[in-house]
Design brief:
heterodimer, A: alpha/beta, Rossmann fold, Alpha-Beta Plaits, six-stranded mixed β-sheet, four-stranded antiparallel β-sheet, about 35% helix, B: alpha/beta, 10 strands
């Protein structure tokens, strides 16, 4: 086996007395895979990525990037990673082209030398190359930031919430770009608070309050959700949620779009639920089997965690 | 019943640029209405007109029965507003924030005292009452923001991308608060980039380049576009020349 792109072992980081940002986190990112770090704000995603980007020191544990240790070998690591921080941090007063040129120069290379790698993305920016970075739309800023992170041909990309606050069209385009980069053999660690992006990754770590809930292929995490699950709707959503939670076989009831996902303690006939809801004066009752999603799995893992 | 919001050919131009181009729609009382669109499609401009913050170039609109041209101030008194960047005061405690906004909304001091009790109780935030807002978790901030934005019992509340970044349970608790408000008759007008949130709405409109390109229940839209999710509907509307996958 080749060296993993990233190896993290029992990594911990604390801020002050009260905030345990990371609590003994361990995982590997393989070469050429898209690895998603999926969790809400405050889960520890940024802390973890900054440690790997050699911008922050961990309190305990080990972290290696392409086999180099983040503390001793930080200079080597910095030459081989591309890092896109969560906040837009290019030079707002420089043009698109100037920003790119600037980052190329810092890494001792030229735009021309590595143009092949960024071409797909850069052609979309080219019409605006004279525009100041600060005047670009959200989607365009993100594309420029990715170009700048790629200009020195890194082998590992660290992307901290690249799709937050970006509209669905730009998000989709961004993920398509990541897939093309993966084909060029670049390993990508990408964090996101949006669960639906999990399915676009090869493997994901679900992270919450500094700890990892689960690491696996997204389909396997979803299929690990093994409770009977039904989608239920009636004409009164608010009352429906309350009533379902009072239902004796209910394990949990959470709104999922126009339905409520009802997970059950044991398998029962949908007719029993229908009768129960009819007895509570619900109209327009509809009950059907539901396919679990990554969010069902995440919530189940969260509640299990809380019980422990 | 008079609709909570009506817009008739509502238009806003900035110089030669038409940001909002003759949009017409109605929002019913007690409805959760999703207002979607890509970056730059005109959502914010349209919402600012409805909030009485921006004067339309042409067309008609009324909000809570008040005219956006002549009664903008009245509109502001009858709506609530919460944005993602909603300005709770980070250096005030939870209690002080409630008191402050109660004062702004012109509630009596007795009413404010009641509201402090009610909100602390209802949100299960008693332990945070004297904590500075900057040190409470994001999920609590969002729930608190929402509660404060409706503490003067407005007829309509406008939510501008309200639930970014929180965990799935907290996000659902937030939507349950929205359902509760709607079930009590409040109209909810919500903008979001996240299409799964659109599925929580009674009806959604999707803006493309200043116009409303589609408006219906999430279910009907999915049927109409032969799509499995609102995300597919959105991509088909905004990238019509490409196949969505």
């Amino acid at each position: 086996m080749s060296t993993p792109a990233i190896q993290v072992e029992n990594l911990s980081k604390r801020y002050g007395k009260d905030v345990q940002a990371l609590d003994r986190v361990s995982f590997d990112v393989r070469q050429g895979e898209i690895f998603g770090l999926i969790g809400p704000d405050g889960a520890g995603k940024t802390t973890l990525i900054r440690i790997l980007a050699t911008l922050l020191l961990a309190d305990e544990g080990k972290a290696l990037v392409t086999g180099w240790e983040v503390r001793q070998d930080y200079r080597k690591i910095r030459r081989h990673i591309g890092y896109m921080p969560g906040r837009f941090s290019l030079y707002q007063d420089l043009s698109v082209e100037e920003n790119l040129h600037f980052f190329a120069t810092i890494f001792g290379t030229t735009i021309k030398e590595n143009y092949e790698l960024i071409r797909d993305i850069y052609v979309q920016l080219e019409p605006f190359k004279a525009r100041k970075a600060g005047k670009l739309s959200g989607g365009m800023k993100q594309k420029l930031a990715l170009c700048c992170a790629l200009i020195h041909k890194p082998t590992v990309l660290l992307l901290d919430e690249p799709t937050t606050g970006v509209d669905p069209v730009s998000r989709k385009e961004f993920w398509e770009m990541l897939k093309r980069l993966r084909e060029k053999g670049i390993a990508i660690l990408v964090s996101t608070p949006y669960m639906d992006e999990a399915s676009l990754c090869d493997r994901v770590a679900l992270i919450q309050k500094g700890g990892i809930l689960s690491i696996d292929e997204p389909e396997k995490i979803v299929s690990g959700f093994d409770r009977p699950l039904l989608a239920v709707r009636t004409n009164d959503m608010y009352r429906l949620i309350q009533d379902l939670r009072d239902f004796e076989s209910a394990h949990s009831a959470f709104p999922f779009g126009e339905f409520v996902h009802l997970s059950l303690k044991n398998q029962i006939w949908p007719e029993a639920i229908h009768a129960y809801l009819a007895g509570k004066q619900h109209d327009g009752i509809e009950i059907k089997p539901a396919q679990a999603t990554i969010e069902d799995a995440f919530m189940e893992l969260m509640t299990r965690e809380a019980v422990h | 019943m008079t609709p909570a919001i009506t817009a008739d050919k509502l238009t806003k131009k900035f110089g030669d640029f038409t940001a909002v181009n003759q949009i017409s729609f109605e929002v019913k009382k007690g409805e959760i209405f999703g207002f979607l669109g890509a970056n730059g499609a005109g959502k914010t401009t349209a919402m600012r007109m409805l909030n009485g913050l921006s004067r339309p170039t042409a067309g008609q609109a009324s909000v809570a029965g008040f005219d956006v041209y002549r009664e903008a101030e009245k509109i502001k008194q009858h709506i609530g507003y919460m944005s993602q960047k909603f300005s709770l005061y980070e250096d005030l405690t939870v209690r002080e924030n409630i008191q402050f906004y109660g004062g702004i909304y012109g509630l009596s001091s007795r009413k404010i005292r009641e509201q402090v009790q009610e909100l602390m109780e209802g949100l299960g935030m008693r332990e945070f009452a004297n904590t500075l807002v900057k040190s409470i978790p994001l999920g609590w901030k969002q729930k608190l923001s929402f509660s404060i934005s409706i503490m003067h019992r407005p007829e309509i509340v406008f939510l501008d991308e309200p639930t970014g970044g929180v965990d799935p349970i907290t996000r659902r608790q937030f939507w349950e608060m929205i359902y509760k408000a709607a079930s009590e008759g409040m109209t909810v007008f919500v903008t979001t980039h996240y299409m799964d949130e659109a599925e929580y709405c009674d009806r959604v409109s999707i803006m493309v380049e200043g116009r409303i390109a589609a408006l219906d229940t999430p279910r009907a839209l999915k049927e109409q576009f032969g799509a499995s999710s609102m995300n597919d509907v959105f991509l088909q509307l905004t990238r019509p020349n490409q196949q969505s996958s």
